[in-house]
Amino acid sequence: MLLSKEEESMFQIVKKDKRTLARVGTLTVPHGGRLETPAFTMVGTRAKVITLEPEDLIKTKTGIIISNTYHLWRGLGDKLPQFKGLHDVMQYDGIIATDSGGFQVFSLGFGREHEVSKVGFFPESNSTPGFFSDLFLQIRIWLGITNSRNSVRVMPWGAYFKDENYGDKKFVFLDAEKSIRIQEKLGADIILAFDECTSPRHGYWYTKWAMNRTHRWAKLCLELKARPKQLLYGIVQGGAFEDLRRESARIIGSMPFDGFAIGGSLGNSKEDMYKVLEWSMPYLPEDKSRHLLGIGQIRDIFEGVQRGVDTFDCVIPTREARHGGIWTYDGRYDVTKGSNKNIEAPLLEGCVCPACVDGLTRAKLYELFKNKDREGGRLATLHNVYFFNELMGKIRQSIMEDRFPEYKEEMLKRIEKKK
RNA sequence: GCGCAGGUGACAGAGUGGUCAAUUGUAAUAGACUGUAAAUCUAUCGCCUUCGGGCUACGGAGGUUCGAAUCCUCCCCUGCGCA
For strand B, which residues in window 1-40 of chain A come within 7 Å by CB? Predict the structure, then answer.
């Protein structure tokens, strides 16, 4: 499909909020898909949003999905060359992105060793490692001496992942080139540069060195990318250190990527995370879309939009659904709690998600969860996914109507008032 | 009536002289989940507590022993088999 002149720019700003950096935009990808932003990306790591069927994606108004290079690559093994492409496999016409595998460098590596998520919360650890501690760590990694939980070894040229099927003996290797080649084969509309996501517990120096690797790899990804029909996004790193974040955003932001993602360790608190956004955003071209990787809680979505984020992705709506967490405009509740046993009401009053419209009640969903019926997880996922998509629509609408800050305040008050 | 086999915390089911308030699983309750090692994980789960400990507990009643859920006696109950 040929793009008209006005569609040449892959991202178009439709409306800018006057009081914040929030904006409504349209993201167009080469295969023809279109997305109104701000939008939430559902996570379908292994080419499937867990529990959902193709028709469910349409029913939940899901406009964009992100799959994962590492998991698909490992999962497909030697069947990768025969892979028909994500749109085919998922039977999905919306926009599909693939993460590069850079997050697994962290999640399977120091995420496990440090037992943290990328937004860490450990107020007790007030001291960050110093230069020599970081140097020592860097040398240990290169020598392959890390905690046994850590199954990744990052080298200057790429990352080695322990192959769990072969004990500790065998490693598989992923680098910028391989990640790009796999992502081209997977055939998403948007692909991401291969990066190294660091841990919130890494010190300044290690974070800086990792950031420099990410920058080198970013340049490589740009040079190696062959397919014009895929958009390539660069990833800003730099942990929660202001000068690193600014440097990374400046360097990545000046490269000719089609869009930009903010990744990474986002610090030790929500405040850190919001600061990271504030430090990075000024260096990212305004006319390119900005994605906040792996972020997801309702408050974070509002704070992100306020600071200029266009797209988010997170497992929260889908994973929490499978665990019984039901999202509503009055916060989240756990449908597996006994208090739901006799509540003959929709999951959310007035909800028009496919599950609620079908007559699902809290009591019925409670029962499905108690019976360990997988249908429970599916129905809860339908609801949450619809809810998140609907919420993003309301956010877009509030920006269009110049009342985003008020809407944010009202929503956060409602959503966080509980308990 | 005789012969076996049993009776353990909400349930299932370990334990057969001390380290047992009693393994484990389920249920229950609470919590967590942020580019999916996750349809998962954690905590609590007899009563009281100044968190040191105290008290009541393994069908019931006695007994042996320094010490019993564990051994003995009697009783009650359940299942299977034979009458």
Answer: none
